[in-house]
Amino acid sequence: MFPIAGGSKRLILAFALLCQLASSGLAYEGHTAVGETGLAIVDFVRQAHDDLGFQGAVLVGRRGEVIAAVGVGQTGEKKSQPIAVDTVFEIASCTKPFTAIAVMKLAEEGKLSLDDPISKHLPGVPEHSQAITVRHLLQQTSGIPRNNSRGAGTDLAAVLPTFLEGGPKSPPGTRHEYWNQGYSLLSEVIAQASGKPYTRYLRDAILKPAGMGSSRFTGQRAPRGATVAVGAATRGADRSALDHPYGAYGFQYRGMGGLVTNLIDLWKWDRALAAGKLLSEESYRQMTTPGDAGYALGWRVRTLESGATVHEHTGSVRGFLASIRRDPADDGCLFVLASSDSSAPFNVVKTSCENLLAGKPPARYEKPKADAELDPDADLLESLIGEYTDSQGRVLTVKRDGPHARALINWHGPITYGYLGLSEGDNLRFATTPAWNASAFAETDAIQVERDGERITGLTLVISQNNKSVRFERQ
Question: What residue range is the signal peptide (predicted)?
């Protein structure tokens, strides 16, 4: 069962969630692992968290059943909790298939045609862009170059001139070029054709029918009782999944990204698609028929070594990475959500899950190594082992790794890996290792030790890079 820290409200939520998962084939104690493949995937994801700092959640479906579902790491909230299958993440460009489904839905309803010129739904389209159709935007073949990205806010008249500046550089429909703003324009096509704001139409046409009760858009309130991942950013400030990455949910992001969801809701969405609850079989076939460069209508289409065809998309935004994949022939899916935009551990997990599903070994990676010459003696090593917390709740953990004192600092998102060792003069220091997803410190960063007799009661990390210190108290 899920963690129920937080009192009776959390207990009630956990019980309700357990019942909900049981009806979806997802009842388990903290994770799902069915069969050898499911167990191998869960074990690998946990190992990748330990070795590489991967923080996130993974779900794998096969033949209509969940065979693996697991969360690893901490949410990074003020009251940080373990990441679980109900933790919500932002999925960035993985929003595009949802936007595309909404367009296909409107086509089924007769409210638009895929071959409508966008000018039929968007007033003010310049003459040079009149040939661009809804289908061209969906398939990324508008001819507009990817660097036409200036423009923000909610005023269509203000963004159209910059989005479409210069017009198509190649005849629409003849060349694939990934252009985010095309999906931003599609969000307004949806609003005009449906008579509803983009987010409301997606809620009514997709999220509600699929039962995606925890899904939101950036800027909206968190689902009641939900845990919300805080994304560790390699550039810029860390951010909650519900925070706007670009200030507001205007044309700078709407339609191309911004959906906030979790594994449970993604599984429900996959099941709704498989059952034909969202689109007809013909509409889904049409939107997954690849064009130039393997891009269909909101999906990338790829043929695996086995000959199977999968429909997938990836997403990247400050603090978050995501990958969604459907395998209709196997009635399967693979969802990988990460609360860090550091790509290396994410790619290792994604590739390894794909490999394990295909009966191949996981991706190889190099585990960070310690310098044996720095190892503390046995007595010091034994006294260092434990968990230490600073005034902000950030955790320094020291574990035995053979003769080494392995250390990990969780900064409410980013993770620093290293080893505690002795420098010249037998002073204790923190030596970082070349681990991915690390907040790196110089090798000269010192550790000041506090003792109560023989017992170590606290460790203060002195960061030479900025001459700051962080005090951790033993728990």
Answer: 1-27
Q: What is the pLDDT of residue 22?
A: 39
Q: According to CATH, where is 2.40.128.50 located in the chain?
A: 372-474
In sequence order, which residues have a C-beta less than 8 Å from that of residue 473 and are 6 or more positions away?
Answer: 388, 389, 390, 457, 458
pTM assigned to the model = 0.78
Question: 113-134: b or e for each residue (b if 16 or more CB lie within 10 Å)?
Answer: ebeebbbebbeebeeebebbbb
SS3 content of the chain, % helix, strand, coil (to 5): 30, 25, 45
The C-alpha atoms of residue 253 and residue 184 are separated, in whole angstroms, by 7
Q: What is the DSSP letter of 310?
A: E
How do residues 313-365 score in pLDDT, each as one tens digit?
Answer: 999 999 999 999 999 999 999 999 999 988 888 999 999 999 999 999 998 87
Half-sphere exposure of 447 (CA within 13 A, CB side): 31
DSSP of 179-220:
-HHHHHHHHHHHHHHHSS-HHHHHIIIIIHHHT-TT-EETTS
CB 234 within 8 A of CB 342: yes
Amino acid at 201: Y
Query: Residue 104 in contact with residue 96, Cβ under 8 Å?
Result: no
What one-character-per-residue DSSP string does 354-419 give? HHHHTT-PPPP-PPP---GGGPPPHHHHHHH-EEEE-TTS-EEEEEEETTEEEEEEE-SS-EEEEE
CATH number among 1.20.1260.10, 2.30.33.40, 2.40.128.50, 3.50.50.60, domain 372-474 = 2.40.128.50
Strand partners, 32: 69
**212 contacts 269 by C-beta, under 8 angstroms:** yes
Percentage of the chain lying above the pLDDT 70 cut: 85
